[in-house]
Amino acid sequence: MNINISNANGEPIYLQIASQIKTMILEGKLKEGEMLPSMRVLATELHISFMTTKRAYEELERDGFIESYTGRGSFVKAQNLEIYREEQLKHIESLLMEAGDTARKAGISIEELHELLDLVNGGD
Amino acid sequence: MNINISNANGEPIYLQIASQIKTMILEGKLKEGEMLPSMRVLATELHISFMTTKRAYEELERDGFIESYTGRGSFVKAQNLEIYREEQLKHIESLLMEAGDTARKAGISIEELHELLDLVNGGD
DNA sequence: AAATTGTATAGCCTCAATATATACAATTAT
DNA sequence: ATAATTGTATATATTGAGGCTATACAATTT
Prior knowledge:
The structure is a homodimer.
Chain A: H1 13-26, H2 39-46, H3 50-62, E1 66-69, E2 73-76, H4 81-105, H5 110-122
Antiparallel strand pairs in A: 1-2
Helix pairs in contact in A: 1-3, 2-3
Chain A binds a DNA duplex through residues 12-14, 38-41, 48-52, 54-55, 57, 68-74.
């Protein structure tokens, strides 16, 4: 499986694995029902402890991307994009809420927030 | 000096002190040039190490609210509200940028972001 | 000169995060 | 059946950051 681990940056191994697999799933390179390499096989490939791959898979399972079954293996779940979207929306809401709180304390208006939002994200 | 320390919540003591003094300054209860209690005096009042009050004062100094001079004491700086506002703006910008990035990845439009911004901050 | 004030360096303690080892349970393959 | 393979559960370092403290030092005031 095509996974690159860089010990250079401080990002934990299990997160590097999880996010790369997550990307593959979201991009359709790993399809629904497809079996992932077993935790031990992947661990051997990457020369790490298989408990670390387990940690990565747990992360993916928690986020609804895969499902694991004792003795059988781990498989890509049917992707519920709606749920994914909802989760991202929640994250965005908390960011916007903090932005609003900060603005209120500093006497910055909601209108300015809207302008900033465009300014910061429009420049692409 | 009127400062309440609660060991109950997990907020560190030095931050509790810093934020309470920050509020007093922003509300005008502590005025420009006014001397703060010395680190040691405040520490004795609060029954903590004076290195913790120093930590709090350092925080305040870093944020431009006070200035300290060896042998003399610590004093409230002239409040440059413009600078304070700019700093808050930067913080807000980074929040909005992350919100934008997340939205892009999840296929959420900028328009929706604007709606969310109002929804989250309008409902008060 | 003594008292008071802030500064600097170093240490300790705790806690969470990361990665691991090892024993256990379920399924599959032979 | 039974061996091999797969995931699970529990316990154990290890590390690093955060928070608080102690103590020695420097500058100013009294």
